[in-house]
Amino acid sequence: MPQNMSGMSSGHTRRREELKVVIVGDGGCGKTSLLMVYTKKRLSRGKTIDKARLHGRIKMHIHLFLCISGREDYDRLRHLSYPNANLLLICYDVSCPSSYDNVLIKWYPEVHHFCHGVPIILVECKTDLRKDKALARKLWSSDQNPITYIQGEETKRKIKENVEDIFREATKQALAATRKSRKAKRNGFCALL
Ligand SMILES: Nc1nc2c(ncn2[C@@H]2O[C@H](COP(=O)(O)OP(=O)(O)OP(=O)(O)O)[C@@H](O)[C@H]2O)c(=O)[nH]1
């Protein structure tokens, strides 16, 4: 049987994975547009929207994108979309500082609560508006500025540190539990009922 029909390639097994991607962020920050650009690009290349080839031998089927409005009346619907998510995109609008603030105030705590341990990608939307002078003037009038790339990096670092803290704490707890059980074994186990 030819190799490509057996599902094997260069001696490696070709795996098929399915991916559920949930996209969140403040209302109007650009989630739907981001998704539209992605799907349009893939369609224009003559590919189906549910297929993406990721590093060589793994074929990803991005079969489900869930992009629920960030507006408050959609909170319940969004919460229902989190189970079994494989990847989370948290979006903010660089021309709207409150959407950036909400990454750490609202979105990260929410996805951390519903999707503990799921990889997160922070996405800055509407980056073209950084060069929009009229918009910059409007923001300056209320003592604000468009969000810079460096500010985005800062939030990414905070999220990363928080994830690392969680893993560090989990490792500490696991090691403490292992030590405790070794000690219990050495001293003999005794329970009073
Ligand atoms: N200048 C500019 N405008 C954008 C960009 N992306 C989105 N917009 C505009 O921003 C507005 C909101 O975009 P949406 O994609 O609908 O935002 P959303 O996050 O899906 O909004 P909700 O469904 O309310 O949560 C629309 O008028 C878009 O045309 C961008 O990259 N640049």
From TrEMBL:
InterPro entries: P-loop_NTPase, Small_GTP-bd, Small_GTPase, Small_GTPase_Rho. Gene3D superfamilies: P-loop containing nucleotide triphosphate hydrolases. Keywords: GTP-binding, Nucleotide-binding. Pfam families: Ras. One of its GO terms (biological process) is small GTPase-mediated signal transduction. It comes from the Eukaryota. SMART domains: RAB, RAS, RHO. GO terms for molecular function: GTP binding; GTPase activity. The keyword Nucleotide-binding applies. This is Ras homolog family member F, filopodia associated. It comes from Oncorhynchus kisutch. The gene is RHOF.
